[in-house]
Amino acid sequence: MTNYTQRHTDTVAIVTGGAQGVGFAIARQLVMDGCTRLILAGRDAEKGARAVQELAQLGATAAFVSLDLQDIDACLSLTQTAVERFGTVNTLVNAAALGARGTLVDTSGRAPFFIMQGFVKYCLAQGGEGAIVNILSQCAHCGQSYLSPYSASKGALATLTKNVANAYRGNRIRCNAILPGWMDTPGEDATQRRFHGATDGWLARAEATQPMGQLCKPDQLAGLASYLLSADAGVMTGALIDYDQNVAGAYPE
């Protein structure tokens, strides 16, 4: 965890998936870096309440919004919800994801598209300026056979990240993405147990097989996200940043 800074004193943020895991780690980092107004959106109201309470202890005013990622109208109106609560919003983190397994015949949600649409429309109406970070996955490069819809949705979001960055750079709306590899999150623990028969101790066993002896950690990634969302990132937009200890395109020698 970094020390307190003033990097985000003017930030008013929406963080989807903000009740746990990567989303909450980024929300907490934004608060540590000066942000005092946040909307957390997610599925679990109980986890959302705990997240809001923890951020309040750090000095932030946060609110939780229950969000069904399949509800297009709710996704479109999320920005307006933030504006009604705080008067404005200038930062968006799309960290919500569904880890369900499925094959090519399954469908996946398009929530980030509509959430970004609502956010960008608001920013344009205010004269421009804003920052978006999309949390993708290394699966955007390919993904396992049982992650077809998930991988496809992340690949589409990678292209959308660049498209949005290009379309609105003249309006000073920046859009970047982070593509983490295998992560140590509550959601991953549930996924391993539900779909892969994992038992207690699976994390330690998994980390022992990794080049750097750990899975990706949300608190470590959060500092990068905070930077990308801040003025310190300057003109950086349209970047897809691999966040993993395995290098795409590398093969055993």
Overall, the morphology is globular
Secondary-structure element pattern, one letter each: EHEHEHEHEHEHHHE
Q: What do the pLDDT scores average to?
A: 92
Q: What is the end-to-end distance? A: 36 Å
Helix content: 40-55%
Enumerate the spans where pLDDT stays under 50 for 5 or more consecutive residues: 101-109
Count of alpha/pi helices: 8
Report on the biggest sheet: 7 strands, parallel
What is the rounded Rg? Answer: 18 Å
Q: Write out the strand line-up for the largest beta sheet, numbering strands in chain order.
A: 3-2-1-4-5-6-7
Number of strands: 7
Residues in β-strands, percent: 15-25%
Structural class: alpha/beta
Give an overview of the whole structure.
By secondary structure, the chain is α/β, with parallel strands linked by helices. The chain contains eight helices and seven strands. Strands 3-2-1-4-5-6-7 form a seven-stranded parallel sheet, with helices on both faces. Helix 1 (21-32) crosses helix 8 (218-229) and helix 3 runs parallel beside helix 4. The longest helix is centred in the middle third of the chain and has 21 residues, at 148-168. The radius of gyration is 18 Å and the shape is globular. The N and C termini lie far apart (36 Å).
Features:
alpha/beta, 7 strands, seven-stranded parallel β-sheet, 253 residues
Short structural summary:
This protein is an alpha/beta fold and about 250 residues long. The chain has 8 helices and 7 strands, in the order βαβαβαβαβαβαααβ.
